[in-house]
Design brief:
With 206 residues, the chain is α/β, with parallel strands linked by helices. The chain folds into 2 domains: 152 residues, Ribosomal protein L4/L1 (Ribosomal Protein L4, Chain: A, 3-Layer(aba) Sandwich), CATH 3.40.1370.10; 44 residues, no CATH class. It contains 7 helices and 6 strands, in the order ββαααβαβαβαβα. A 6-stranded mixed beta sheet has the order 2-1-3-6-4-5. A hairpin with a 5-residue loop joins strand 1 and strand 2. The protein is elongated and about 95 Å long.
Length: 206
């Protein structure tokens, strides 16, 4: 399939061929859901913790005599029933990551790219470069292209001035080709790929 190439000045700069094996698939929501769940679970810190009975500092002496008080029998004040006691079955540090085969992850990325292409939310950019790191000027150029919520993916090296200019623009993300992922593609309305990014993706999926 063919796609038009545009410049930052919103001028046409030719056409490119998009591989059907990457951009021409019928999107599968189940694959995309599994991949997003995998990514979000993997990035959870898992550092939440609560003190158990063995973690509480305190005496182990019996708090009152066994009989004659009219109260329930207790031998330790560190038990969960008392204020300041240990938490029963509380959270402990752990990894929330779930497994997903490498081939499924690669397939999910291709389906995410195909979903953007099918929805006509894919723009091919000639190159993502600016002479000066000026946010105001870049914002106007993006508005000409109709980009308000977008993920821009460049080649293996991101232009330094472009990166500095774009980082203050809300809802617009910039990633190198090796950082492209399903979650970031789906969370923005438009996907913008440079010609360098296309070459890197073609090499990756060969």
């Amino acid at each position: 399939m063919k796609a038009d190439v545009t410049t930052l000045e919103a001028k046409k700069a030719g056409t490119v061929d998009l591989a059907d094996a990457v951009f021409g698939l019928e999107p599968r929501p189940d694959l995309l859901h599994r991949m997003v769940r995998y990514q979000l679970a993997k990035r959870q810190s898992g550092t939440h913790a609560a003190k158990g009975r063995s973690d509480i500092t305190g005496t182990g002496q019996k708090i009152f005599r066994q009989k004659g008080t009219g109260r329930a029998r207790h031998g330790n004040k560190k038990v969960p029933q008392f204020r300041g006691g240990g938490k029963a079955f509380g959270p402990s540090p752990r990894s929330h990551a779930i497994g997903l085969p490498k081939k499924v992850r690669a397939l999910a990325l291709r389906h995410a790219l195909s979903a953007k292409a099918k929805a006509e939310e894919l723009i091919i950019l000639d190159k993502a470069e600016v002479k000066e790191p000026k946010t105001g000027g870049l914002r106007k150029q993006l508005e000409k292209l109709g980009l308000r919520s977008a993920l821009i993916v460049d080649g293996t090296q991101v232009n330094e001035n472009f990166g500095l200019a774009i980082r203050n623009i809300p809802d617009v993300d910039l990633l190198p080709a090796q950082g492209i992922n399903v979650y970031d593609i789906l969370r923005r309305d438009t996907l913008v790929l440079t010609k360098a990014a296309l070459e890197a993706l073609e090499t990756r999926f060969k």
